[in-house]
Amino acid sequence: MLLGTSALVSMSLNRTGYRLPMAAGFLVLAASTLGLGFMPHSPVIGGLALADYWWLGSG
């Protein structure tokens, strides 16, 4: 996915310039950081308590 995204963005830099992809990347980074902050800790799914390590790795 990273390879495809970087190829797509590098091909569109002539049209969009550098500011729009950077702003989009910063927004995605900020949203994912906020999402990690609001995730439940040690959730219980189907009677099985997951450790934080596995819960974060599944997302």
Q: Largest beta sheet, briefly?
A: 2 strands, antiparallel
Average pLDDT level: 84
* Number of domain modules: 1
Q: Whole-Å distance between the termini? A: 15 Å
How do the strands line up in the largest sheet? 1-2
What is the 3D form?
Answer: elongated
Can you give the helix content as a percent range?
Answer: 55-70%
Strand content: 5-15%
Secondary-structure-derived class: mainly alpha
Count of distinct strands: 2
Order of helices and strands: HHHEEH
| Rg from Cα | 17 Å
SS summary, helix count: 4
Q: How does this structure look, described?
A:
The chain is mostly helical and 59 residues long. 69% of the residues lie in helices and 7% in strands. Strands 1-2 form a two-stranded antiparallel ribbon. Strand 1 and strand 2 (48-49) form a beta hairpin. The longest helix is centred in the middle third of the chain and has 20 residues, at 19-38. The radius of gyration is 17 Å and the shape is elongated. The two termini are 15 Å apart.
